[in-house]
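Entry for the shared binder. Reason: the reviewer on the internal report wants the predicted structure included alongside the sequence.
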Amino acid sequence: MSGVRIRGVLFDWGDTLFHAPHAPEVIVDAARAAGVPLSEGDARRIWDELWEAGKTPEELAKGRDLSADAHRDVWSALFARADQLVPGISRALYERVMDSASWVPYADAAPTLRALRQRGVRTGVVSNVPRDLRPLFAAHGMADLVDAFTHSFEVGAEKPDPAIFLAACARIGVAAADALMVGDHPTADGGAAAAGLRVLILPAEQDGDVRGLGRVLELVARSA
């Protein structure tokens, strides 16, 4: 990723800057309410299987992040796979986990965004979401750390479509060749390569609440 200075960094939102910390807890609570014995380990396994299924090309192709209605319909249908194990869990998961207001930033999210701003690097958030993320960032005191937000429902295109990455580059005022896309999904976020951006896919493993975003600062420094 050397040779051309990185003037702008685009970040995915979910599982890159923010995460949902309590999905297994929601499953355990719903199981208890339904009178179904379920361990925390089993709840984690159920959630991990559903979340990974949600990242498959088949699910990504369903247009779930182009509108709020599509988001609810597609995710609820996926979560319904677990209703046979815990009756009603699909509704609980959608209402309590998929609500962006319940998500929290990784410990290294704000420090990384702040360090990029101090270095004069433009930053943007580009995400497949059905609603505006600005209020969430504002609630965590991070709104002034992002130069522009690009949402799939506003653009009418979802990652990995190159159109959404090009729109995001335009909004932060940086050419695609001078930008880095940072995300967690090789297919969705990796689509930025087709738009001419450099790409950093974060590893699935992480150190507790630290996502490993320090790697972004290393790449920016190396490109200077």
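Summary line for the report: The radius of gyration is 18 Å.
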